[in-house]
Amino acid sequence: MIVTSEQAQALTEHLIALELQLQRAETRKNKAQLNLLLANGFEEIAASGVRFDKAHVLQRLPEEQAPSVEAFDFEVRLLAKDLAQVLYKAKLRKAGELQTKLSLRSSLWQLNSLGWQMLFHQGTAVLPASGPA
């Protein structure tokens, strides 16, 4: 699998844009848009440890108030010609909550006839530091 630095940069920018699109309130409320961004076999493991499939996400996200998300420190890894991993950190604050929670995020994106679709996503909570180890 030979990828030029320009191709790698373009893919990195594209996949980060797709991740950020999924975090926007207008995308989360749009079932048709979510359906295009999430692969049919999509699965999520939330920071709480709860597992969700695509049908559950399509039902839940449009009904909930989107959290405030600040995503940063992105890293994109091309695992195969049609599979990439996006890693990043996110500061998330749910509606009505004052506390912001930090998590490590990982998504697998698969290229198919519809374009790049998210196949898997996991958020892992980062606990506040309790002092020197």
From TrEMBL:
Coiled-coil residues: 8-35
Domain of life (superkingdom): Bacteria
Record has Coiled coil as a keyword: yes
Record-linked Gene3D superfamilies: 3.10.450.50
Lineage: Bacteria, Pseudomonadati, Pseudomonadota, Gammaproteobacteria, Chromatiales
Name under which the protein is recorded: Nuclear transport factor 2 family protein
Cell cycle listed as a keyword: no
UniProt organism field: Rheinheimera mesophila
Key words of the record: Coiled coil
Domain DUF4440: 15-118
Pfam families named among the record's database cross-references: DUF4440 (PF14534)
